[in-house]
């Protein structure tokens, strides 16, 4: 099993998060401000260099207006 930061699922999640952010009309710096993190945190998240825990996914869903459960269902499909 590959490390999760380089797995296909992690890459797909990262791409989905970029799309959600752009659909929300936010720049990385805007999202970082809303989350109370540095912009580099968002960069690492979106590039797949950083794993996302469940609580972070829920918070991202709240801010970017997506359903975290639906994201997980899509990621779980093969």
Question: What can be said about this structure in brief?
Answer:
Helices cover 67% and strands 0% of the residues. By secondary structure, it is mainly α.
Any key phrases for this structure?
single chain; 78 residues; mainly alpha; 434 Repressor (Amino-terminal Domain); globular
Q: What do these coordinates show?
A:
By secondary structure, the chain is mainly alpha-helical. The chain has a single domain, classed as lambda repressor-like DNA-binding domains (434 Repressor (Amino-terminal Domain), Orthogonal Bundle), CATH 1.10.260. The protein has five helices and no strands. Helix 2 (28-35) packs across helix 3. The chain is globular and about 35 Å long. The relative contact order is 0.17.
Radius of gyration, whole Å: 12 Å
**How many domains is the backbone divided into?**
1
Oligomer: single chain
Q: How many alpha or pi helices?
A: 5
How many strands in all? Answer: 0
Proper CATH architecture: Orthogonal Bundle
Termini distance?
Answer: 16 Å
Strand content: under 5%
Give the SSE order as H and E letters: HHHHH
Q: Which ranges are low-confidence, i.e. pLDDT below 50, for 5 or more consecutive residues?
A: none
- Mean pLDDT across the residues is 92
Which structural category fits the helices and strands? mainly alpha
Shape label: globular
Secondary structure elements and their pairing?
Layout: H1 8-23, H2 28-35, H3 39-46, H4 54-64, H5 68-76
Helix pairs in contact: 2-3
